[in-house]
UniProtKB/TrEMBL annotation:
Protein name from the UniProt record: Asp23/Gls24 family envelope stress response protein
Stored PANTHER family: ASP23_GLS24 FAMILY ENVELOPE STRESS RESPONSE PROTEIN, HYPOTHETICAL CYTOSOLIC PROTEIN-RELATED
Taxonomy of the source species: Bacteria, Bacillati, Bacillota, Clostridia, Eubacteriales
A Pfam short name: Asp23
Protein family per UniProt: Belongs to the asp23 family.
Length: 115
């Protein structure tokens, strides 16, 4: 993403958005971690901290905002609606305050529940 101002240009890579988003999401209560669905066996796998960016997709909109898609694994027994709303709010706030880019949407997909 490229941001212009009167002082010059700022370029923010996709890796920054995915790292900030993954960190904000996994710090929320009830989240076990980021998820990825295996293409070989179709199973959902819990990602390690080093590779949690695979569970995040960032889409750049024409109006200068970003749309974020998260795939997560949650703990058993938590209120899924409350956890997802918490993630949406936290991710939107952290990404906006860290990068200065507005977040248009945050879509959360619960891929699995872990015991």
């Amino acid at each position: 993403m490229k941001l212009q101002n009167d002082l010059g240009e700022i370029r923010i890579s996709s890796e920054v958005f995915t790292a900030v988003t993954g960190s904000a999401a996994t710090n929320c209560y009830g989240v076990k971690g980021m998820a990825v669905r295996s293409t070989t066996d179709g199973l959902v796998h819990l990602l390690k901290r080093e590779s949690m960016a695979k569970g995040v997709k960032v889409y750049y909109n024409d109006d200068g905002t970003v749309a974020i898609e998260l795939h997560i694994i949650v703990e058993n027994g938590v209120n899924l609606t409350a956890v997802c709303h918490s993630i949406m709010s936290q991710v939107r706030y952290v990404v906006s305050s860290t990068t200065g880019v507005d977040v248009s949407t945050v879509d959360v997909y619960v891929d699995s529940v872990r015991f």
